[in-house]
Amino acid sequence: MTSAPLEARGLVKTYGDQGVATRALAGVDLVVAPGESVAIMGPSGSGKTTLLHVLAGVLAPTSGSVLWRGQDLTTLPDRARTQLRRSDFGFVFQAGQLLPELPADENAALPLLLAGTPRPTAIDTSRRWLAHLGLAGMERRRPGELSGGQAQRVAIARALVGRPGVVFADEPTGALDRHTGWEVMQALTTATRAQGASLVVVTHDEEVAHWCSRTVHMRDGLIVAEAHAQPVAPAAGVTAAGATASAAGTTGPASPTPSPTASQPLPVALPTAPWSGAAR
Ligand SMILES: Nc1ncnc2c1ncn2[C@@H]1O[C@H](COP(=O)(O)OP(=O)(O)O)[C@@H](O)[C@H]1O
Ligand SMILES: [Mg+2]
């Protein structure tokens, strides 16, 4: 669906003023190809969330540019940028992003309702996504009646209902146990790919990163290393993350796609995708 990359050039972001300035991004270049999934890893405070927010047009950089479909997000007027964010981007955060008083189907339908889609169509689309993500029968449950993993699937449905070109996710499995996190990441990457959207996901979990086609490591506001999914040898200079992952990993960190033996098969079947338009 997308035909252009998301491209960041020379991103610098400084918070605060001269006295207590923090340089969160120190000159980041990043190109995310259509349909590509990129994991952003790095220690706390290295600038991951800042980078995600700048890429998504949520936060303005101090300097540098973000190009998306021929437009520089950093120079667009606020209103146009908000509009573009709503129509072209989807977001998944760590937790607590669903409206507690709304059932799952209405939560997931929100972007469509905000965009003026007639309610029956919006709810219908939302329900198809929920079913697609393994939540059939839970459409009327409120977030408090869902497990953490189920709530994240609702959030994924919400990120995808509007057919975004890019989905941004900040620590989407951070509040989940390992197995549930694994399932949620599979749901997120599979659904995003099937939709033809790109994915940019911040994570501290090496296993989560394995669901992505590329991993970039940040330190002190810079991308310091990069690895593609094929040979995932930990890059030189990023010893800490690589070392712990190999020590703790049961499957070994090198598999480009996660081994199905590493966890239970997931209920995310893809026979009738909601975007296919095939009514059943
Ligand atoms: N709103 C803010 N105001 C001031 N400093 C901030 C703000 N947000 C983040 N920072 C600082 O910027 C740096 C990068 O933060 P962040 O992007 O949140 O890193 P990460 O997501 O990798 O933990 C940190 O030093 C952090 O303290
Ligand atoms: Mg962060």
UniProtKB/TrEMBL annotation:
<dbReference type="Pfam" id="PF00005">
    <property type="entry name" value="ABC_tran"/>
</dbReference>
<feature type="region of interest" description="Disordered">
    <location>
        <begin position="243"/>
        <end position="280"/>
    </location>
</feature>
<dbReference type="GO" id="GO:0005524">
    <property type="term" value="F:ATP binding"/>
</dbReference>
<dbReference type="InterPro" id="IPR003593">
    <property type="entry name" value="AAA+_ATPase"/>
</dbReference>
<keyword id="KW-0547">Nucleotide-binding</keyword>
<dbReference type="GO" id="GO:0022857">
    <property type="term" value="F:transmembrane transporter activity"/>
</dbReference>
<dbReference type="GO" id="GO:0016887">
    <property type="term" value="F:ATP hydrolysis activity"/>
</dbReference>
<feature type="domain" description="ABC transporter">
    <location>
        <begin position="6"/>
        <end position="245"/>
    </location>
</feature>
<dbReference type="InterPro" id="IPR017871">
    <property type="entry name" value="ABC_transporter-like_CS"/>
</dbReference>
<dbReference type="GO" id="GO:0005886">
    <property type="term" value="C:plasma membrane"/>
</dbReference>
<dbReference type="InterPro" id="IPR027417">
    <property type="entry name" value="P-loop_NTPase"/>
</dbReference>
<keyword id="KW-0067">ATP-binding</keyword>
<dbReference type="InterPro" id="IPR017911">
    <property type="entry name" value="MacB-like_ATP-bd"/>
</dbReference>
<feature type="compositionally biased region" description="Low complexity">
    <location>
        <begin position="243"/>
        <end position="265"/>
    </location>
</feature>
<protein>
    <submittedName>
        <fullName>ABC transporter ATP-binding protein</fullName>
    </submittedName>
</protein>
<dbReference type="GO" id="GO:0098796">
    <property type="term" value="C:membrane protein complex"/>
</dbReference>
<dbReference type="InterPro" id="IPR015854">
    <property type="entry name" value="ABC_transpr_LolD-like"/>
</dbReference>
<keyword id="KW-0813">Transport</keyword>
<dbReference type="InterPro" id="IPR003439">
    <property type="entry name" value="ABC_transporter-like_ATP-bd"/>
</dbReference>
